[in-house]
Amino acid sequence: MTPDEIEAALKVAFTECEAALSPLTDQQKQILLQVVAESLTRELPLASQNGDEERNTGNPLDELTPQQRQDLLQFVKEQEKQEYPWKIKLLNDWLHERNSGTVQFIRDSYGPQWLNRVKPVHLAQYFEAETALEGLKLKIGDRIEVSNGLWEWVQEEGPCSREWFPCTVVKISQSTDSNNSYYSCVIRFDNGSEYEIQGIYQWNRYNWRWPS
Question: Do 8 and 113 reside in the same domain of the chain?
Fold first, then answer.
């Protein structure tokens, strides 16, 4: 789908909601934009997906020039500080024909299909490699994987090896003691059970990861 096709489809959806006396809020529209964005790649023709399969297995950020990659990481970092989804910012710019500044090259040279190949795990690889850049911060609703090392003793080699389990972040909180502050979060597994992880960015950073 092109940005014009996305905009046309969304306008129809928004109009139908208003006609049904159930207009969407701005937040709901943003959520809808995100859902549409994430579905773009899944809706590509099968032949196209198969043709790009080998290329899509790597990190899409590897395809950028060093300057483009730096500009994108800086853009993501700025949106993180504002607690605004960076992909939604780009899609809003595209739908309203606004220039996206230093990351306009994504629209001009790569397009929505490339954009939707980029996952948090891809960004995290570069954020964690660059000491000058802070890592991606978790938000409520993010999908991550956690290690069984959180609740049992594991070894890299041995009978109790490390395993990974998918879950969803449902709560984030900050605590402060006499010397430091740290973040904790509550995760919910797919079976409905919940677990609290303390020091999510400090001592327990090793026990969670972004899904591939």
Answer: yes
Domain identity same for 66 and 171: no
Distance between CA 27 and CA 167 in Å, rounded? 24
pLDDT at 91: 82
Residue 47 has, within 13 A of its CA and on its CB side, a CA count of 0
pLDDT tens digits, 144-168:
999 988 888 877 666 778 889 999 9
Tell if the pTM clears 0.85, that is, is over it.
no
Structure confidence at residue 23 as a pLDDT band (50, 70, 90)? confident
The torsion defined by the Cα of 73, 78, 84 and 87, in degrees rounded to 10, comes to: -30
Q: Is residue 138 part of a domain?
A: no
- As a residue count, the chain comes to 212
**Look-up of token digits 């809003």:** 92
Specify burial of residue 146 (Cβ count, 10 A radius: 0-12, 13-18, 19+).
buried
Residue 101 and residue 152 in one domain: no
- Structural domain that includes position 199: 143-209
- The 8 Å CB, 24+ separation contacts for 26-35 are 30/85, 30/88, 33/88, 33/91, 33/92, 33/95, 34/85, 34/87, 34/88, 34/91
> Which positions ≥6 away from 150 have C-beta within 8 Å?
195, 197, 204, 207
